[in-house]
Amino acid sequence: MIELKENFIDIDTYLELRASVNWKELSREQARLSLEKCLFTVCAYDGDKAVGMGRIVGDGVVIDYIQDLIVRPDYQKDGIGRKIITRLIEYVKKSKLPDTEIMLCLMSAKGREGFYHKFDFISRPTDTLGPGMIRYIK
Fold first, then answer.
1. 3-state SS class at 116
2. Strand 63-71 with 49-58, pairing
């Protein structure tokens, strides 16, 4: 049975989950600080084994981002990603200021857009929104 744990993830687990989906390698210091500075984390466990995670980063009042939504390949298609993203969205809804609107953004991996559409995310560009952009700084 999958259990979600909030704000309960260590550096090794984070790095291991990232490696399981072949994401860019981070230094331990990057991993430590990224976990410390995020607003909220959810980690999915199958017993003692971490099988997925997601983070919320941002300012918590105007804009937040879903970051590092990961499910180990051997656990994909079991509804774990759905559980994680649902909990991340719930967190943002509950933490935003009353009577305000907050923008929740993410960057989808290529080919995974349909998953996020199920949660009312829209793909850009649209008639009124330009494309998302990125820059890596070394």
1. helix
2. antiparallel
Q: Which of 89, 29, 82, 33 is nearest to 56 (CA)?
A: 89
Is 90 exceeded by the pLDDT of residue 110?
no
Comparing CA positions, the residue from 53, 32, 35 lying closest to residue 43 is: 53
Sheet of 49-58, strands arranged across: 2-6, 40-46, 49-58, 63-71, 103-106
Structure tokens at 6: 């909030």
pLDDT above 90 (res 135): no
Q: Which two tokens stand for residue 137?
A: 């700084």
Dihedral sign (CA 22, 84, 12, 63):
positive
Across the chain, what does the average pLDDT equal?
A: 96
- pTM flag (> 0.85): yes
Please determine, for residue 137, whether its predicted confidence score (pLDDT) is greater than 90: no
Going by C-beta distance under 8 Å and a sequence separation of 6 or more, which residues neighbour residue 125? Answer: 131
Q: Which of 25, 37, 38, 29 is nearest to 11 (CA)?
A: 29
